[in-house]
Design brief:
0% strand, mainly alpha, single chain, 129 residues
């Protein structure tokens, strides 16, 4: 299996926030409140992508210390706050126990999944690639 980097490039392709498996989870909703400010910072950095392509590929830990990250008040999310990019080693499976396993996962529609030929699905329930 591929090692999926926790970077803005992969973050921007991730479908987890709109996945039916976690859509009605109160646990996910509560964690997303804490993560909302960092999402705003990532959105601002994405707007700058043409001027800062190096930031787009940087691990989020590196990004936090970079000029772009500092300018946008970005700080690396704690894995228990970030309910996205479960396929990455840095995040792994969700610590929420109210995900709806009966719903169809969207992994196969995700560009991160396709580009890395991940093969399996439901990373939110079973952990990283």
């Amino acid at each position: 299996m591929a090692r999926i980097k926790l970077n803005i490039s992969n973050y921007g392709k991730c479908l987890c926030p709109v996945c039916p498996v976690q859509l009605k989870s109160p646990c996910i909703a509560a964690k997303n409140e804490n993560w909302r400010e960092q999402r705003k910072a990532i959105g601002e950095i994405l707007k700058e992508y043409p001027d800062h392509p190096e930031a787009y590929q940087m691990d989020m830990e590196e990004l936090e210390k970079s000029g772009v990250g500092i300018r946008h008040h970005f700080s690396q999310p704690r894995p228990d706050e970030m309910q996205e990019l479960y396929c990455s080693e840095a995040v792994g499976k969700s610590n929420c126990d109210d995900l709806d396993e009966e719903k169809m996962c969207q992994c196969q529609d995700c560009a991160v999944w396709q580009q890395n030929r991940l093969g399996r699905t439901y990373f939110c329930l079973s952990g990283s690639a």
